[in-house]
Write a structure and sequence with these properties.
This protein is mostly beta strands and about 300 residues long. It has two helices and 21 strands. Strands 11, 13, 14, 16, 19 and 21 form a six-stranded antiparallel beta sheet that branches.
């Protein structure tokens, strides 16, 4: 009887142990990937290499692993030979809350032999995709820059060239506002080649500004009337800043509801005022460089 009872107890223990293993299976030991930053290789006809790629969207074996703010080290549960796809993430319109995959940079694909507990460091290099149209590439190195339509009729607030506080190259664009010249409204020369409907449209640029300014579109209806669509404001910054302005909603809406033939990329601003509504003394500068208007 004792022998039978002992055997029964041992059997129950083995069953309980096996059950525990099913309920709490051994945890997988991950491998790790580390991405510090992306490098962009541009070409002369596509402007400079400046970028603000802040996120990496990562897929392993065609499965989405996550979107990671760079630099990042993160676990991957799959090990062995794996296909890794990495897409560039940017802050849409410079807003932290809206990271998006940037459609005009290529992705990175590589095969790695992932080993549990080991860290693989990836240094992704991307280019601009081949099928993108670069309608505007302005680096302000030449006297005849593209922001030539002075819509405020004040030559003092025109886009000029400067060799001081240059972002890259020898020159940058500069606009100066003051109490006596408080209004800015300037645009590129007129464009007739339009983005295809329902496609991505972006304006890239590097800027440094002492005053809020807006970026948008001037467009012309069939009667030649100039209309405006401005949705993007940029705040003052003490450092040169890269921004990707998503103009897709504006162009898609125009393509759907408005019969427009020509358009311009526009910039407008207003000198700051005090509590009484008087323009402030002194001057405020807007610096621009590496402006690109890109679409499919």
């Amino acid at each position: 009887m004792k022998k039978y009872f002992f055997t029964l107890i041992m059997g129950l223990c083995l069953l309980l142990f096996a059950g525990c293993e099913v309920i709490n299976p051994p945890e997988e030991i991950p491998a790790y990937l580390h991405i510090k930053k992306f490098t962009v290789n541009s070409s002369p006809n596509k402007g400079g290499n400046s970028s603000a790629i802040t996120e990496a969207f990562v897929f392993v074996d065609n499965g989405f692993v996550g979107a990671y703010t760079l630099p990042a080290t993160f676990p991957v549960l799959k090990t062995g030979d794996q296909r890794i796809d990495i897409f560039t993430g940017i802050k849409d319109n410079g807003i932290d809350a809206t990271p998006e995959i940037y459609p005009f940079y290529t992705s990175v694909t590589l095969n790695l032999d992932l080993v549990a507990t080991e860290v693989d460091t990836i240094r992704p290099v991307v280019e601009y995709v081949e099928n993108a149209t670069f309608n505007i590439v302005e680096n302000f190195e030449n006297t005849l820059q593209i922001f030539r339509d002075d819509l405020d009729d004040d030559p003092e607030t025109f886009v000029n060239l400067t060799t001081e506080d240059v972002f890259e190259g020898q020159k940058s664009g500069v606009i100066v506002l003051s109490k006596d010249h408080p209004v800015l409204q300037v645009a590129t020369n007129r464009q007739s080649d339009k983005p295809a409907a329902n496609r991505e449209v972006y304006l890239e640029m590097d800027y440094k500004t002492e005053v809020i300014f807006e970026v948008g579109i001037f467009y012309y209806d069939v009667n030649g009337t100039r209309l405006a669509e401005f949705q993007h404001g940029l705040n003052p910054t003490t450092e040169w800043t890269k921004v990707y302005i998503n103009l897709s909603p504006e162009f898609n809406a125009l393509s759907e509801f408005v019969d427009f033939d020509e358009y311009q990329i526009g910039i407008r601003s207003l000198m700051e005022t005090d509590e009484s509504g008087n323009y402030l003394e002194g001057s405020r500068k807007i610096l621009l460089d590496n402006v690109k208007f890109i679409y499919f």
